[in-house]
Specification:
Elements (H helix, E strand, L loop, with lengths): L3 E4 L3 H13 L3 E7 L6 H5 L2 E6 L10 H11 L3 E3 L9 H9 L3 E2 L4 H8 L1 H10 L7 E2 L6 H11 L3 E9 L2 E6 L2 H19 L4 E5 L5 E9 L5 E13 L2 E7 L6 H17 L4 E9 L5 E7 L6 H8 L3 H9 L16 E8 L1 E2 L5 E2 L2 E2 L2 E3 L4 E2 L5 E6 L6 E2 L6 E9 L2 H13 L2 E3 L5 H8 L2 H5 L6 H5 L11 H23 L15 E6 L2 E11 L2 E6 L5 E6 L7 E6 L2 E10 L2 E6 L2 E8 L1 H7 L13 E3 L4 E6 L6 E2 L4 E7 L2 E6 L4 E6 L6 E2 L4 E5 L1
Parallel strand pairs: 1-2, 1-4, 2-3, 4-5
Antiparallel strand pairs: 6-9, 7-8, 7-9, 10-11, 10-13, 11-12, 12-15, 13-14, 15-23, 16-17, 18-22, 19-24, 20-21, 21-23, 25-26, 25-32, 26-27, 27-28, 28-29, 29-30, 30-31, 31-32, 33-40, 34-36, 34-39, 35-38, 36-37, 38-40
Helix pairs in contact: 4-5, 5-6, 7-8, 12-13
């Protein structure tokens, strides 16, 4: 067994590998760029080595720097995590040439399966079901259009060396093929240093289901059931679960056996994933094989009890698998929500900055046996950089059933408190409450179908508005009770105590009377006689989260203080509740509403990023929806479009410019 390993990665996956290595008694070495000098993985490792400037191309992707870090620290092996160099055959070869063990598959498997074009040819020859498509290299947009016409629309344009949704576009027409081809190539080159793309038929209404495999150097390969990864946005997985609610035992076994057959054909060792798309009749087709640990591996660990990172390390050290196929039993249900630094209310544009508050829900097993796990690489006070993937954390829950795991996830998301940057917690919270998620009727088109105009917040019915208004009245009552009991604050003046609380939430006003109190329970009665409510909660002023129940319904609500009230977040709903006394409410209704400035004739930068191209000139006429420029942020190229018809009157940013949120890129007349 190794005495010391180096993790050639960053963020939550580096922390994840460090955790298992420590459990095994193995010393760890972290590597870091200038942007990650104070990162969590640097803090948690036994040693840390700087490998270059902030851009990944000058640090985490520099093979020579990783090898030199191994030599200087005496690391015997390297775990690559995922992304970066994890599926780079040249990296594995370089390690071998320097006597360093690669904690991953053999070079032949990486070469055969890591290249998406070659992997499809290999899978087809091995008798694995594959999706119709063109597997040759495509040089020009015109070639791409011709090939797409032959295959038939819709088609998927994918980076040959890709993964993680980078360099991937769906095209439904010739125009979309031309635009998607150029964007996919640019993203592929930026993320992987390889601009080759291929085109395949896009299966309508598919589910994305993948099989986890595990092999050793002695010819043993097993599969550890499946993960459902159909909830995707821009081909990037958002929520995963294990097992899938769609598969039956027969289909699961057939997919697992094909995945094992493919792995054995390349003498696969270590952890790997065979991805399939599955149509509504349970026909499945090979998509690709990822010759690395997957982002969503925790859900498999939670339902099987197998530590995949530990198995990877043991296999790399030459140990034979102690696990046999018939010993793999599925226990309960696990869900993973990816928490990203992005603004769901602004088309999920990346968000960067400092984590002023970072308070995840407590990890561990509760008194009901349900589990919360949070894999993260950040901490309160840390910074989300523009240079890397926007993932903040992977929040996982386990419970005996899918329904219970969903409820546990909803409560955990409601308790996940982040300030300082925008994040997608409201969005994933809304999905947990969505009828299609609850029923399990999923496809990879779920997000596009259910949120066609983007995410505007979860819908709020009358019952939820009432409960949130009651929580606001509860909070205000508790705060005012505390103020009345602070020694000396009233200077001997008589206490004037009003039990009335008038709450304005959205455009609705509700008047409550605090009818009675018993410990942490407050009884509210609406002035109009329409509702009597019993609220129980142990919230105290300064707490970030209210946990309690309203008429017996459990609720977890995030609390942010605002002028005359609170900003409340629950189940994907973010609402501002102003709380007044009766007289204050009368006066508040007379106050004029302050209107925001008119920016309708400006294109404002929606995220920090780098201007890649400007596609119009001053004086050009543009139509609503027309692409006008491209901005790169967090390894993704984002096309900005005109929001209305007009004429370009000014362009204030050139290609190469670094932009901040709110910068005026161009103006229209």
């Amino acid at each position: 067994m190794f005495n010391k390993i180096l993790i050639a990665n960053r963020g939550e996956i580096a922390c994840r590998v460090i955790r298992t290595a420590k459990k095994m008694g193995i010393a760890t070495v972290a590597v870091y760029s200038d942007a990650d000098m104070r990162a969590l993985h640097v803090r948690e490792a036994d040693e840390a080595v700087r490998i270059g400037p902030a851009p990944a191309s000058q640090s985490y992707l520099v093979i020579e720097a990783i090898i030199e870090a191994c030599k200087s620290t005496g690391a015997q092996a390297v775990h690559p995590g995922y992304g970066f160099l994890s599926e780079n055959a040249a990296f594995a070869k370089a390690l071998a040439e320097n006597g360093i063990t690669f904690i991953g598959p053999n070079i032949r498997a990486i070469e055969a399966m890591g290249d998406k074009i070659e992997s499809k040819r290999f899978a087809d020859a091995a008798g694995v079901n594959t999706v119709p498509g063109f597997l040759g290299e495509i040089e020009t947009p015109e070639d791409a259009i011709r090939i797409a016409d032959e295959i038939g629309y819709p088609v998927m344009i994918k980076a040959s060396a890709g993964g993680g949704g980078k360099g991937m576009r769906i095209a439904n027409s010739r125009n979309e093929v031309k635009e998607g081809f150029e964007l996919a190539r640019a993203e592929a080159k930026s993320s992987f240093g390889d601009e080759r793309v291929f085109i395949e038929k896009f299966v309508v209404n598919p589910r994305h289901i993948e099989i986890q495999v595990l092999g050793d150097k002695h010819g043993n390969v097993i599969y550890l059931a499946e993960r459902e990864c159909s909830i995707q946005r821009r081909n990037q997985k958002v929520i995963e679960e294990a097992p899938s609610a769609f598969l039956d035992e027969k289909t699961r076994a057939a997919m697992g056996e094909q995945a094992v057959a493919l792995a054995k054909a390349v003498n696969y060792e270590s952890a790997g994933t065979v991805e399939f798309i599955v149509d509504q009749e349970k026909n499945f087709y090979f998509l690709e094989m990822n010759t690395r640990l997957q982002v969503e591996h925790p859900v498999t660990e939670l339902i099987t009890g197998v530590d995949l990172v530990e198995q990877m390390i043991r296999v790399a050290a030459g140990e034979e698998l102690s696990l046999k196929q018939d010993a793999i039993k599925l226990n309960g249900w696990a869900i993973e929500s990816r928490v990203y630094a992005e603004d769901p209310y602004r088309n999920f544009l990346p968000s960067t900055g400092r984590l002023v508050r970072y308070r995840p829900p407590a990890e561990g097993t509760d008194d009901r046996g349900m589990i919360i796990r949070n894999d993260t690489g950040v901490y309160e006070g840390g910074e989300i950089s523009i240079y890397y993937d926007p993932m903040i954390a992977k929040l996982c829950t386990w419970a005996p059933t899918r329904e219970e795991a969903t409820r546990h996830m909803s409560a955990a998301l409601d308790a996940f408190y982040i300030d300082g940057i925008q994040h997608n917690i409201p969005f994933v919270s809304a999905i947990m409450a969505h009828p299609r998620w609850i029923s399990g009727a999923l496809t990879t088109g779920f997000i596009a179908e259910e949120f066609p105009e983007g995410f505007k917040g979860a819908s709020v019915d009358a019952d939820l508005k009432l409960r949130l208004s009651a929580v606001a009245a509860f909070l205000d009552h508790v705060e005012n009770e505390r103020k009345r009991h602070i020694t000396g604050q009233l200077r001997g003046k008589p206490v004037i105590f009003t039990r009335e609380r008038v709450v304005k939430l959205d455009d609705e006003w509700r008047s409550f009377l605090v009818d009675d109190e018993e410990g942490d329970t407050i009884f509210l009665r609406s002035r109009d006689g329409t509702a009597d409510l019993e609220l129980t909660g142990d919230w105290r002023p300064g707490d970030l989260v209210w946990r309690g129940s309203v008429d017996g319904t459990p609720m977890t609500v995030q609390v942010r203080r605002t002028l005359n009230g609170y900003r409340l977040a629950h189940a994907g709903v973010e609402a501002v509740a102003h709380v007044y006394t009766g007289r204050e409410a009368e006066l508040a209704k007379l106050m004029p509403e302050k209107l925001p400035p008119d920016t309708s004739r400006m294109l404002l930068c929606p995220m920090p990023g780098l201007m890649i191209s400007v596609d119009v000139n001053v004086g050009d006429e543009v139509k609503a929806g027309q692409a006008v420029c491209v901005i790169e942020a967090m390894k993704m190229q984002n096309v900005l479009r005109a929001e209305r018809d007009g004429v370009v009157s000014a362009i204030n940013a050139e290609p190469g410019a670094t932009l901040a949120v709110g910068d005026v890129i161009m103006e229209f007349e």
